[in-house]
């Protein structure tokens, strides 16, 4: 079991910490540990000016976004567009075979040929 120790804070600071602690962690100890870990992990202190630090961070993120955009454009140029062009060429070169027409004998009364298309078998009754 962990042992506890007392640290003295001014009353208003302690109340402020208790209110904030309720929002970020279940216990005050965990809240304090999370805050200390944050400061240690980011190598910063509360009295530090974060203006230039955040600008540096923003520039780094923007550079990473730019590099991701370059990677995606490269993939599009070298992989997607050629594949799309090959598929388009295949579909343009392929022409479905035209079905032959069945011709009925000449109708002596109409003096013309009567043509019919071959019946396509399908489940839909509208296509007959």
Give descriptors for this structure.
128 residues; mainly alpha; 2 domains; two-stranded antiparallel ribbon; 2 strands; 55% helix; elongated
Give structural notes:
The chain is mostly helical and 128 residues long. It has helices at 11-24, 28-41, 51-93, and strands spanning 101-103, 115-117. A two-stranded antiparallel sheet has the order 1-2. Helix 1 (11-24) crosses helix 2 (28-41). The longest helix has 43 residues, at 51-93. It is elongated, with a radius of gyration of 38 Å. The termini are far apart. The model has no long low-confidence stretch (mean pLDDT 79).
Short description:
With 128 residues, the protein is mainly alpha-helical.
What is the count of distinct domains?
2
Anisotropy-based shape? elongated
Arithmetic mean pLDDT: 79
Main β-sheet, in a few words? 2 strands, antiparallel
Q: Taking Cα atoms only, what radius of gyration do you get, to the nearest Å?
A: 38 Å
Number of helices: 3
Fraction in helix: 55-70%
Element-by-element helix/strand order: HHHEE
Strand proportion, as a percent range, falls in: under 5%
Tell me the total number of β-strands.
2
Distance between the termini: 83 Å
In spatial order, strands of the major sheet run 1-2
Would you tell me the structural class of the helices and strands? mainly alpha
Q: Could you list the spans in which at least 5 consecutive residues all have pLDDT below 50?
A: none
């Amino acid at each position: 079991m962990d042992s506890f120790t007392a640290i003295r804070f001014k009353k208003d600071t302690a109340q402020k910490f208790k209110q904030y602690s309720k929002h970020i962690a279940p216990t005050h100890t965990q809240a304090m540990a999370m805050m200390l870990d944050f400061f240690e992990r980011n190598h910063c202190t509360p009295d530090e000016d974060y203006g230039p630090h955040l600008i540096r961070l923003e520039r780094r993120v923007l550079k990473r976004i730019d590099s991701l955009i370059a990677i995606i454009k490269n993939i599009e140029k070298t992989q997607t567009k050629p594949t799309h062009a090959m598929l388009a060429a295949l579909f343009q070169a392929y022409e479905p075979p035209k079905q032959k027409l069945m011709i009925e004998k000449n109708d002596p009364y109409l003096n013309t040929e009567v043509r019919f298309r071959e019946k396509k078998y399908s489940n839909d009754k509208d296509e007959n």
